What we know:
The chain has 120 residues and is α+β, with helices and mostly antiparallel strands. The protein has helices spanning 31-50, 86-99, and strands at 15-23, 55-61, 77-83, 105-112. Helix 1 packs antiparallel against helix 2 (86-99).
Amino acid sequence: MGEIKHGAPQVPSPLRVFITFESTGWFETTQEQKEKELLPQLNTVLEEWRSNGSELLGTFDRDILTAGHSGPAHWHACFLYNVPDLQTVADMTHSFRATGLDRYFRLEASIGRPFFLLEQ
């Protein structure tokens, strides 16, 4: 391995974005509301993200060993994307506000970069 340099991290292009997803008001809704309103609306938003120039790299759902509210982790699932620019990240999180999904779900985006020891 070559010399490790400790200068300022370079902002990658595309951006590596980690989005945490927490169910909040979801637990106060009926099964019918979930099936007929929320899940179709959520699916529409996530499908729109496919056409914004982002690349979904992976997802992680914590539901194997958890049930109910998110607890101290404050998220139920996460999504890892390569996103073309910061405005697209803002548009992705805003899509939950614009559709009213933010009453039922909370998103938070963190921007980073590929880990240098595993990805070049």
